[in-house]
Structures are given as C-alpha cells and as structure tokens.
Amino acid sequence: MTDTSIKAAPLNRYQVLITVIIVLLLFTIVVDYMLLSALSAILLPALNLSTEQFGALASAYAFSAAISSFISTGFADRFNRKSYLLFFYFGFILGIVCCALAPSYWVLLAARIVTGIFGGIVGSTCFAIIADLFLLNQRGRVMGFVQMSYAAGQIGGLPLAMYAANEFTWQAPYWIIAFLGLGIGLALFYFMQPLKEHLKQVQNQMPWQKVLQVIHKKNHWNVFLNNALLVIGDVLILTFDAAYMANNLKLSLEKIPLVYVVTGGVTLLFGPIFGRLSDKLGKLKVFTIGTVLSIGAIAMYSNLQEATFAMIIIIHALLFIGINARMVSSTALGMEVPKLKDRGAFMAFDSSVQQLASALAAAFAGLVLYTTADGSLSRYWLLGLIVISFMLTTLFFMQRIQSTIHKA
C-alpha cells in the first residue's frame, strides 16, 4: 500500500465501537501513568517517602513495562488478540487495586511493578488490533481518536483524580480507575469479536526465535528508532517543563495546571483533525508539518528569558499541536511495516523500546540541566537544541519507513 492522497475509507459501526472501547481503555492507562507524579505532594508526607524512594516509584512502572513488553515479543502472535488484551488489561486492573490497598512504600512499589508488567503490554496490543481491523487509509482517523484518550486524561481524568485524592485519600483515585476499568474490560469482553486471522500465518517458532525474527529485520528498526526518538524528544522537553515555567519564567504555581488543561484541549481538538488529514494528504506530509511546528515552538520556548502567561499558553499550544501531528501520523504509518503474523511481536518490542527510552530520557534531562543559586534551570537552551536535533532525525526515519511501504 502507498501513502498518497487517496480517498479515506469510511468506518463501519463495529469499527467505531471498537475505537471507542480502545480509547476508553487507554484513557485508564494514561491517567494511571500520569497520576503518581501528580500525587507527589500528597504521597511524600503520607508514606514518609524520600525523594529517592519516590523516584523509584515513578520509574518502577516504565522499567517493568519495558521488560514485560520485551518478553511479550516472543508470545504476542501466538494468541487470539482479544484474549491476550483481556488477560493483560485485567492484570493491569489487579495492579491498580493493589495500589489502592497499599499500606506502605514497599507494597506500593510492588504494586507499581505489577501494574507496569501488565499495563505496559496493553497499549502495544491495542495498536496490533488497530492494525488488524483498520486499513492504512483509516488508521490516521483512528489514531487521532486514540490521541484523545491522552488529552481526556490530562483535561478530565487527572483533575478528577486529584480532587478525589484531596477530598478523601490518595488511594481514592486508584479505586476510581479500577471500577472504571472493570466496566471497560467487560465491554471489551462482550463486544469485541475474536481476532485470530494472524494465527493462520504463525509458524512453529520458539519465543526466542520470534524475538530474533522481529529484531533481525532492518525495516523494523526504522520504526523502532523513529518511535524511540519521538518519545525521547517529548520526555526531554516536558520532564522539567513545570519547573522551567515556575523558576525561569516566573509563572505562578496556580497557573501552571491551566497550561496543561489548555494543551490537553488542543490535543483533544486537533487529534481527529490530524488523523483525517494524514489519511487524505499522507502521513509523511502531516508528520513534516508537525515537526516544523514543534521545532519552532521549542526554539522559542527554550530560549525565553521572560514571558507572559498568554505567550506561554500559545507556545505550548503550538508545541502540542506539533507533537500530536507527529505522533498520530507516525504511528499510523509505522503499523503498516510488520506483516500480519508479526504485528503483535512487533508492537510489543516497539513498546519495550519506547518504555526504556522514556525512562532513560528523563534521567538524561537531569544530567543536561542543573539548578542555579536562584532556583532557575540552566542550559535549557541546550536541551532544546538536543530535542530539535532528534526531531530532524525523525524526518529521515519517516522517509525510510514510507519508502519501505512503497516497495512492499
């Protein structure tokens, strides 16, 4: 299949239903992933945690998800995708319940590891399902709606969770996620049809042979490296974003949440728009537009000496519009690279690479920046240059991905 300007195929009722279920399912994953950092001010005194202990809690999910996703590479294409997703999603809900019941740091740490082991595979399995159920000229719209789960988590899910934590206990948000997830899991069980077509093509391979098969293909690495750079760039610029706004740009702590609400709203609005555009204009064109917007926003933002609240909002809106365009278009195009029999393994390994990249990028950002005597962050401009270089590199990989698909 090529990725030129072609008429986008309409979605049927079943495809719309599955899209809604996947968006809701990923919403719970997103809220859980963002929740721990948002609860830091409550958790530190509640469990008498040191900053090192909280850092371990924050990274436990990403590292355990990376490991489980890597292991899943050898098994993901051996099962009905519906059953595989149900198993790991209900395992994720079990981990959430363990978080809600955790009485101490060590129990919570174990619960976060359990949540990462199961939750880390949910997203890659959802993407494999999308690749199976939707044509290339439909996936842009679907990924646009999937991006709405991230925006909805930022706009509605996280504020609701924080309200519950402030009004009741820090465990309350986890109970809310667990009960919501249970309902979504039951909807998945009742409405999704089994997905077994890929099983007809699976060869008798040992799990380690499957892993080697996925890793060995050079065209797969175009996607793996591209997605790793996408994640690294986003994490690098956003990890210390709040601290940069507060300490360098002197934005009050009360206004910082409003920045993220606005950027979440932008993502909610533009996700479907970029999804449709990528189906009509082509994924690479939309990705290039998003890259230009992102680079311009980062170049301005990382070199600011002072800024008004309106200026910060505008720059963040442009940045998130660009990030959204890049993520929607690259994911939709990358799904076309693996063969049907390799999609589950491909998505699992890709998820493992992204989780590991996310964990390492946050640590790297801390090495690049340092805090001055007045509390501001120094060398943010350097961080911006590094991110821009990564973004330019992704254009090269996207060109190669599209070229690979054209030759197929």
UniProtKB/TrEMBL annotation:
Q: Which residues form the Major facilitator superfamily (MFS) profile domain?
A: 18-402
- Any one Gene Ontology molecular-function term assigned to this protein's record: transmembrane transporter activity
Output this protein's name: Major facilitator superfamily (MFS) profile domain-containing protein
- Please give, as recorded in its UniProt entry, the membrane topology of this protein: Multi-pass membrane protein
Record's Pfam families?
Answer: MFS_1
- Membrane as a keyword of this entry, yes or no, is yes
Primary localization class, coarse = membrane
Concerning SUPFAM superfamilies, the annotation shows: MFS general substrate transporter
Which UniProt key words apply to this protein? Cell membrane, Membrane, Transmembrane, Transmembrane helix
Q: Where does it reside?
A: Cell membrane
Known PANTHER family for this protein?
Answer: CHLORAMPHENICOL EFFLUX PUMP RV0191, PURINE EFFLUX PUMP PBUE
CC terms in the record's Gene Ontology section: plasma membrane
Q: Membrane-crossing residues? A: 16-42, 54-72, 84-107, 113-136, 148-166, 172-191, 223-246, 258-277, 284-301, 307-325, 346-368, 380-398
